[in-house]
What we know:
The protein is an alpha/beta fold. It folds into two domains: 6-17 and 85-198, Rossmann fold (3-Layer(aba) Sandwich), CATH 3.40.50; 18-84. Helix content is 46%, strand content 15%. It has helices at 21-27, 31-40, 44-51, 56-66, 71-79, 90-101, 117-121, 136-139, 146-156, 170-178, 192-198, and strands spanning 6-9, 16-18, 85-88, 106-110, 130-135, 163-167, 182-185. The strands form two sheets. It has a five-stranded parallel β-sheet with strand order 5-4-1-6-7, sandwiched between helices. The protein has a two-stranded antiparallel sheet with strand order 2-3. Helix 4 (56-66) runs antiparallel to helix 5. The mean pLDDT is 98.
Amino acid sequence: xxxxxxxxxxxxxxxxxxxxxxxxxxxxxxxxxxxxxxxxxxxxxxxxxxxxxxxxxxxxxxxxxxxxxxxxxxxxxxxxxxxxxxxxxxxxxxxxxxxxxxxxxxxxxxxxxxxxxxxxxxxxxxxxxxxxxxxxxxxxxxxxxxxxxxxxxxxxxxxxxxxxxxxxxxxxxxxxxxxxxxxxxxxxxxxxxxxxxxxxxxxx
Length: 204
């Protein structure tokens, strides 16, 4: 494989943090109640439908019908989604600025509701360095489906081996690697810049 010449960033827990608990710990006084709600009502399996392009309102309606006692909490998922996001991950933000200064093209690939993306972009000026961002909610495709990586290639005009992809999910990294992308699983923010240096995208 030749060295990469562009960087593809996941967003949640790579550029900015993301956790429903940031919001729901404000809404439930007891931690056990928060745990119960997030494991049995607004679950990851329910939320992924937002990432697939289902609107907050349409996804909330059947859940509210099943759990009417939690209607305010369910509606908060969409109404206050931005409160689940953050903080900005400083090491990634700094690396994005450095890549921009070096003239390295940068793109985004995120599993995210379409309705949430505009607000998330306001959290850091580093998002302005992304030449394009493929948002799952817009494409009606979610990582690790290989089809969404093919959208990246079509939109960027790059080959897989031209791209270094950062993501915190092992499944997403494995799917990209299988298609020929250079990959780095994001587990430690301090490893971002060394990874970029090792791939020749930044100087030491």
